[in-house]
Amino acid sequence: MDFVWRALFFLIFGPLIVGIALQVFLALMITILPWLLTLAILMGVAAGLSAGFVIRRGLSRRGGTGAPPELPPGGSRVRRPRGVDQR
User: Fold this and answer.
1) Which residue stretches of 1-87 are H helix?
2) pLDDT at 48 > cutoff 70
3) Measured in Å, how far apart are the chain's first and last C-alpha atoms?
4) Short-list 61, 65, 85, CA closest to 74
5) Cβ neighbours of 67 (radius 10 Å)
6) Do 39 and 45 meet the contact criterion of CB atoms below 8 Å apart?
7) Phi, psi of 54 (to 5 degrees)
8) Mean pLDDT taken over the chain
């Protein structure tokens, strides 16, 4: 008879406990998710700005050829030894 009471207890209060746990989980997600999205957006903006500064620093100034100063005026060429078949 003790088994029947335990089974009845879990059948009655099981859905209640699951419902309360789901409600607590959803409340936590609703409060935490906007903060996570904001943090992700800020990280993307910071990465984009830093990449923009790095790229801008690597480009030449006005009136230049557009290539970095260490490259020849025609850009970077690949030099191959003579006699190598170019496929």
Assistant:
1) 2-58
2) yes
3) 85
4) 65
5) 14
6) no
7) -65, -45
8) 82
